[in-house]
């Protein structure tokens, strides 16, 4: 065989091997340098009347993602990528958005803003084994739909349970009147509260269900004078509540008024000049760390960091909000505890970390978070406020 031919053949074999080695090395280097991403879906309403809720969720998630990235899981560093979608507060659109986020590789979704949009989304995500963590939805029955739902916020039953516990512990043998304003939320709240109180041995002197115009409230004040209760729990909005208190204070009786989220507002002091409100109690479903006038340093730091980021994002995103909303801290905790579950599972695969979510134990801005078998938060706290010298302050 020709010696030149053999040499040429060896040369080309060496060249091919060398080129393959170079290509393999480049591919391995590329794989090593490729950015690893955890895709987090953010489903919320970002348009029309309620867009502030979605904007609040967006800012809170951006803040949490910035605090977490890069996150080390299973020996690799991951950056967090938010995939934000507007479901417009519509169940029909929410169903499509859920399918879209699942198709785009979201490993976990936070949202949605309303119970209706949340309920239609749960089965879609469950089909893909994707956890849905909710900082908003509060209807008790929402948690009964799927095994992939986790609620960071208090549900309606728990909220009323906390109200009932306060009344049972603070009204003793005093006579109690309950009032609703004939709107769905108010009626359901008083229905459940009445049942809880009666079950626990608390006598209810009377229940009133009235439309909250001034004529009806004036007549109600006369009836309350006849009843002479010691305590009045009102599921009325702050305008109705302020007017009723003013009318009752014109009489010779001085009952203690108790309300909840509907009646607790800074704007209540603008009604009737804010008079006659001292002593008004409000039981709200926010833990002390996120309620007004918090002294918790972690919550205070969150508020400052949120506002700083908001100023930056406002320029690029045309946001309408001007401060943290009522759900900001719940959204932030939702992402933080979810990433903690991934780290505990040592995996970013939903089928792995969803089991860790079910047994999570996390101390966040909104307090201690654990989930029961339905995905509801266990023992969520409420905060009690009282009006003193014309302002809301902590009751204790």
3D structure, described in words:
The chain has 396 residues and is an alpha/beta fold. The protein has 2 domains: 37-154 and 294-369, Rossmann fold, CATH 3.40.50.2300; 157-284, 3-Layer(aba) Sandwich (Rossmann fold). 45% of the residues lie in helices and 17% in strands. The strands form 3 sheets. Strands 8-7-9-10-11-14-15 form a 7-stranded mixed beta sheet, with helices on both faces. The protein has a 6-stranded mixed beta sheet with strand order 2-3-1-4-5-6, with helices on both faces. β4, α4 (115-127) and β5 form a beta-alpha-beta unit. It is elongated, with a radius of gyration of 28 Å.
Please write out the topology.
Layout: H1 3-33, E1 37-44, H2 51-68, E2 71-73, E3 76-86, H3 91-103, E4 108-110, H4 115-127, E5 132-134, E6 149-151, H5 156-170, E7 176-180, H6 184-199, E8 206-209, H7 214-227, E9 231-235, H8 238-248, E10 256-259, E11 281-284, H9 297-317, H10 328-345, H11 350-358, E12 362-364, E13 367-369, E14 383-388, E15 391-394
Parallel strand pairs: 1-3, 1-4, 4-5, 5-6, 7-8, 7-9, 9-10, 10-11
Antiparallel strand pairs: 2-3, 11-14, 12-13, 14-15
* Backbone structural class: alpha/beta
Number of domains: 2
CA radius of gyration: 28 Å
Number of helices: 11
Q: In CATH terms, what is the fold-level topology of the largest domain?
A: Rossmann fold
What average pLDDT do the residues reach? 92
Task: Bin the helical content.
Answer: 40-55%
CATH H-level superfamily title of the largest domain: Response regulator
**What is the string of SSEs from the N terminus onward?**
HEHEEHEHEEHEHEHEHEEHHHEEEE
Low-confidence stretches: 20-32
Main pleated sheet? 7 strands, mixed
Q: Spatial order of the strands in the main sheet?
A: 8-7-9-10-11-14-15
Beta-strand portion reads 15-25%
The total count of strands amounts to: 15
Distance between the termini: 101 Å
The CATH class of the largest domain, by name, is Alpha Beta
Judging from the principal axes of the Cα atoms, what is the shape? elongated
CATH architecture of the largest domain: 3-Layer(aba) Sandwich
């Amino acid at each position: 065989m020709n010696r030149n031919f053999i040499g040429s053949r060896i040369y080309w074999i060496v060249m091919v091997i060398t080129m393959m080695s170079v290509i393999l090395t480049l591919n391995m280097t590329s794989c090593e340098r490729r950015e690893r991403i955890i895709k987090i879906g953010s489903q919320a309403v970002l348009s029309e009347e309620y867009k502030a809720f979605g904007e609040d969720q967006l800012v809170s998630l951006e803040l949490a993602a910035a605090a977490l990235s890069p996150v080390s899981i299973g020996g690799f560093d991951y950056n967090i990528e938010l995939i934000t979608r507007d479901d417009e507060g519509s169940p029909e659109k929410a169903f499509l958005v859920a399918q879209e986020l699942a198709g785009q590789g979201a490993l976990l979704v936070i949202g949605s803003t309303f119970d209706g949009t949340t309920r239609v989304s749960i089965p879609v995500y469950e089909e893909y084994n994707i956890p849905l963590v909710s900082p908003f939805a509060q209807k008790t029955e929402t948690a009964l739909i799927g095994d992939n739902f986790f609620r960071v916020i208090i549900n309606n039953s728990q909220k009323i349970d906390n109200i009932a516990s306060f009344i049972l512990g603070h009204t003793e043998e005093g006579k109690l009147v309950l009032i609703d304003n004939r709107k769905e939320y108010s009626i359901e709240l008083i229905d459940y509260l009445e049942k809880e109180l009666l079950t626990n041995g608390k006598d209810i002197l009377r229940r009133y269900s009235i439309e909250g115009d001034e004529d009806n409230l004036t007549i109600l004040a006369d009836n309350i004078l006849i009843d002479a209760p010691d305590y009045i729990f009102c599921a009325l909005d702050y305008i109705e509540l302020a007017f009723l208190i003013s009318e009752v204070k014109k009489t010779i009786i001085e009952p203690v008024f108790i309300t909840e989220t509907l009646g607790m507002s800074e704007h209540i002091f603008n009604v009737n000049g804010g008079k006659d409100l001292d002593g008004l109690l409000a039981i709200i479903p926010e833990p002390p760390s996120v309620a007004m006038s918090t002294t918790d340093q972690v919550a205070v730091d969150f508020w400052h960091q949120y506002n700083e980021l908001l100023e930056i994002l406002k320029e690029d995103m045309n946001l309408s909000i001007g401060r943290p909303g009522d759900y900001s801290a719940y959204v932030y905790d939702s992402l933080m505890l979810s990433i903690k579950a991934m780290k505990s599972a040592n995996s970013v695969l939903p089928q792995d970390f969803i089991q860790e979510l079910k047994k999570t134990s996390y101390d966040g801005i909104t307090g201690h978070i654990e989930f029961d078998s339905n995905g509801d938060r266990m023992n969520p706290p409420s905060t009690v406020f009282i009006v003193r010298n014309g302002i809301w302050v902590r009751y204790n």
